[in-house]
């Protein structure tokens, strides 16, 4: 993490920051944004060290912990796991039916690809809870995460796991560079499920050229009293030449409608894509 911060300071992109500030201003609330060109080290960040609610983007570190335990032979991807009535979760992301039996691999895929909360909390229980995930992230040398809660606890609307934009950026960089300590097959599986995510089509992907590969994870809170606490998307975007960029966008405490919140994420991702891929940076639509 210290090394990443040093790189951020050396290769900071002020022109992209100006465009990003212009884009973020229309979202309402506060916007945390960070982007890194993994080839050149060029970077930008807004509210870099402020903590933001993660919502389901915390499923990325959960997946890393699950796959570590698979590599350590404490879990098996083929292991059958029984889901009972106590595993049921409400809300649009609690879609997995119970009672049922699924393998660990199926739970992992559902947790990431469709952001299923039933799958997430079952996997959390298998790996030792949120504290095990938090310890894994810190063990990777990434500071700035606080992971304490399950989806069930977050669903009550009073607590959330949190991270800074640069902390999530550091974790994404480790995923991209295969520096999470995972075996080759586990790292490949993680990348595969992130590329197959079906949520958030109008977020990081929303303004990119059609067909651009994006390995990402979304997170969304409920809207209460006209304000949405979290509209998030974090991931790795492939450029035409094969390089990847890491992009983090957290939209917090916004009274804007969903189209504006998601459009802000899309425009920030496109600004990073254009800046790091050789296109023009613009603050406009």
Describe the protein's architecture and organization:
The chain is 39% helix and 20% strand. The longest helix has 20 residues, at 258-277. It has one domain (2-277): Beta-lactamase (3-Layer(aba) Sandwich). It has helices at residues 2-10, 14-24, 59-71, 104-113, 117-127, 130-139, 151-154, 165-176, 184-195, 258-277, and strands at 30-37, 43-46, 52-53, 80-83, 100-103, 145-146, 162-163, 214-220, 223-224, 227-238, 244-254. Strands 1, 2, 8, 9, 10 and 11 form a six-stranded antiparallel beta sheet that branches. Strands 3-7-6 form a three-stranded antiparallel beta sheet. A two-stranded antiparallel ribbon has the order 4-5. By secondary structure, the chain is of the alpha+beta class. The two termini are 34 Å apart.
Helical region count?
10
| Shape label | globular
Task: Tell me the CATH topology.
Answer: Beta-lactamase
Q: Element order, helices and strands?
A: HHEEEHEEHHHEHEHHEEEEH
Strand content: 15-25%
By DSSP, the count of extended strands is: 11
Low-pLDDT stretches are: 280-285
Domain count: the total is 1
CATH architecture: 3-Layer(aba) Sandwich
Largest sheet: 6 strands, antiparallel
Helix share of residues?
A: 25-40%
Cα Rg: 18 Å
Mean pLDDT: 92
Question: At the first level of CATH, what is the class?
Answer: Alpha Beta
Structural class: alpha+beta
Relevant CATH superfamily: DD-peptidase/beta-lactamase superfamily
In angstroms, what separates the terminal alpha carbons? Answer: 34 Å
């Amino acid at each position: 993490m210290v090394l990443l911060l040093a790189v951020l300071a050396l290769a900071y992109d002020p022109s992209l920051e100006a465009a990003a500030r212009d884009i973020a201003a229309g979202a309402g609330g506060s916007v945390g944004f960070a982007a890194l060109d993994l080839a050149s080290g060029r970077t930008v960040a807004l509210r870099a060290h402020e903590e933001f609610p993660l919502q389901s983007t915390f499923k990325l570190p959960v997946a890393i912990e699950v796959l570590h335990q698979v590599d350590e032979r404490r879990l098996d991807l083929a292991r059958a796991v029984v889901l009972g009535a106590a595993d049921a979760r409400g809300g649009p992301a609690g879609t997995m039916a119970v009672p049922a039996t699924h393998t660990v691999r199926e739970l992992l895929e559902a947790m990431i690809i469709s952001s299923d909360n039933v799958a997430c909390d079952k996997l959390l229980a298998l790996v030792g809870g949120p504290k095990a995930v938090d310890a894994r992230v810190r063990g990777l040398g990434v500071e700035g995460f606080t992971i304490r809660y399950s989806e069930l606890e977050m669903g009550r609307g009073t607590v959330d796991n949190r991270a800074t934009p640069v902390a999530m950026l550091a974790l994404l960089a480790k995923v991209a560079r295969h520096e999470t300590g995972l075996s080759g097959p586990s790292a490949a599986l993680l990348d595969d499920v992130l590329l197959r995510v079906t949520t958030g089509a109008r977020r990081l992907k929303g303004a990119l050229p059609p067909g651009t590969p994006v390995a990402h994870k979304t997170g969304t809170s409920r809207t209460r009293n006209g304000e949405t606490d979290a509209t998030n998307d974090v991931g790795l975007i492939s450029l035409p030449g094969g390089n990847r960029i890491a992009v983090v966008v957290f939209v917090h405490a916004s009274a804007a409608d969903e189209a504006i919140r998601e459009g802000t994420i899309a425009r920030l991702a496109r600004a990073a894509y254009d800046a790091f891929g050789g296109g023009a940076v613009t603050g406009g639509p």
